[in-house]
Amino acid sequence: MRQVFHWYVYGSDKNGPMSIYAISCKLNEMGVPTFADTGTRKPICPKQRGYGQWARSPINRMLRNETYAGVWRYGKTTRKDGQWIQNSDDHLLAVKVPALISRDLWKAAQVRLAENRSNGRCNRKHDYLLSGRVTCGTCGLKMAGSSKFSQGKVYLYYRCPATVPNSNTARTCHAPSFRAGDVDAVTWEWIRSNIINPDELLRDCAHTRKSASMRMNRSESACGW
Predict the structure, then answer these.
(1) 79: alpha, beta or left, given left = phi > 0 and alpha = psi -120 to 50?
(2) pLDDT per residue as tens digits for the range 27-62
(3) How far apart are CA 188 and CA 180, in angstroms?
(4) Are 16 and 6 in contact (CB under 8 A)?
(5) What 3-state class would DSSP assign to 155?
């Protein structure tokens, strides 16, 4: 864990800071066991990658976790009506715990994470209405925007990240891509119809909450909770 923070902030072999993707590749090459491999932390759902195979998401969560710097935040989620609800920061209770890394190192990692998020938005070539807002119907990952240049035209799609070769996602997926224009048009029509018919919006929200609760219950059952 300390090495991951050091790689992200300072880099390896004087080559400069490493990206989260580069860190995941290095851990995979070294065969370092993940949290799920060692049994030190119960996974949210059964692990789908092999032993010592890291995805980017757990490394990202590790770098954001303030517990490693000596502060554990209690009360992040609350279960209400069968659903997990994310609490706001002002509802959290800060608890001091033994620090595994220095506060300065953790803060440096947060600065770089923020810079990468900002640079990622600035470098985006196309706007996608639903990128990161819709999930893959096959594996559950958030869909990302993707473009393809063909015969002098640019075509925009929504694509599951797990379908990208060598993506180092937590799983592999074979879901198809969807034309962004078609998906956006359906979404705008859904928004328009719900604004006109608020009762229908309430029914859709209730259905969405029920579906989310059922997915959570299935995940908990798969994990034996």
Answers:
(1) beta
(2) 888 988 887 777 666 555 556 667 778 888 888 889
(3) 12
(4) no
(5) strand
**54 burial type by CB count under 10 A (0-12 exposed, 13-18 middle, 19+ buried):** buried
Query: With 70 as the cut, is the pLDDT of residue 217 above it?
Result: no
In sequence order, which residues have a C-beta less than 8 Å from that of residue 215 and are 6 or more positions away? Answer: 140
- The first and second tokens of residue 81, run together, are 């009506």
121 vs 131: CA distance, rounded Å? 12
3-state secondary structure of 177: coil
- Kindly report, residue by residue over 57-106, the tens digit of the pLDDT: 888 889 999 999 999 988 887 777 777 777 787 788 888 999 999 999 99
DSSP state of 68: G
Under 8 Å between Cβ of 21 and 5: no
Burial of 72 (0-12, 13-18, 19+ CB in 10 A): middle
**What is the chain's length?**
225
Please report where in the chains the tokens 């119960």 appear, as a residue.
42
Say which amino acid occupies 17: P
Can you tell me the distance from the alpha carbon of 66 to that of 107, in angstroms, rounded to the nearest whole number? 9
Is residue 51 exposed (0-12), middle (13-18) or buried (19+ Cβ within 10 Å)? exposed
